[in-house]
Structures are given as C-alpha cells and as structure tokens.
Amino acid sequence: MKTDFFLPFPPSINRYYSKTRNGVYLSAAGRAFQTSGILFLREQLGDHPLIDYPIHLSLILYPPDKRSRDLDNYIKPVQDCIQNSGLLINDYLINQLEMFRGYSQTPKGSVFVRIREAAPILQNTAEERALI
C-alpha cells in the first residue's frame, strides 16, 4: 500500500518547541503547523484507515525560499503531524526514513510525503552491513 499527500512547510525544530522554566512545550508555530497540517492531510486522504504496521517514510522538502536549511531539523514536526492526524498509530512504526530537498513550488513551501510498507528489518549480518 502506498499513501501520498502534501503538508504545509513545517517550522524548524528550533521553532517547533518553546522552552520555559516550567518545561518544554509546543510553540505557537508548532501548534499552527499541527492544525493546518492535519487539515491538509484530511482534505487529501479523507477517511483513510489507521496505519498500524511498520512503514517507510519518504519526504521531499520544498522550502519557501533559497535560505540554507538543515533537512533533519524538519523531520519531527512532520512525524508528529502524521501521528496526531490519526493516520499513523505511533511514529515508532517508522522503520525507514528518507528525506530529499526539492525546488520550491510555492511561496509558502510544502512537504511531499509518501508512506509505504517498510522493507524487512536488517538483522546485522555481514551481508546486510555490506548493503550500506
């Protein structure tokens, strides 16, 4: 099974959380992304069945401008959005993850997401280690 959809461009992990003396919380930017991302996802997939099996998650990040960005700073907000939408039972089911940088398509940017069933888990044999 393959599931494809777009999400709005997420905040960097540096802006996703707010740290206070009482703890760490989702920031206003993080809450806004979660709300809009869940709406985007539901508009595109409708009433999709819950994914409760290991997955391979592919992301193409389309930044809104040409500023330098570390791709890995955008993974967690996307994973949380997919889980909070009710599409994925828990993000621990992500067994494989790949992320690519794409050219900007819109002034606000976006993220293309593809979910498919994960390949078998590697068993740490010499043959499997030779694959990487």
How is the topology of this model organized?
Blueprint: E1 2-8, H1 13-16, E2 17-20, E3 23-26, H2 28-45, E4 55-62, H3 75-84, E5 94-101, E6 110-117, H4 126-129
Parallel strand pairs: 4-5
Antiparallel strand pairs: 1-6, 2-3, 4-6
Helix pairs in contact: 2-3
Tally of structural domains: 1
The chain-level mean pLDDT equals 92
CATH superfamily: Holliday junction resolvase RusA
Beta-strand residue fraction: 25-35%
Question: Features of this protein?
Answer:
132 residues; alpha+beta; 60s Ribosomal Protein L30, Chain: A; 4 helices; 30% strand; globular
What does this structure look like?
The protein has a single domain, classed as Holliday junction resolvase RusA (60s Ribosomal Protein L30, Chain: A). The protein is 27% helix and 30% strand. It is built from 4 helices and 6 strands; from the N terminus they run βαββαβαββα. A 4-stranded mixed beta sheet has the order 1-6-4-5. A two-stranded antiparallel ribbon has the order 2-3. Helix 2 packs across helix 3.
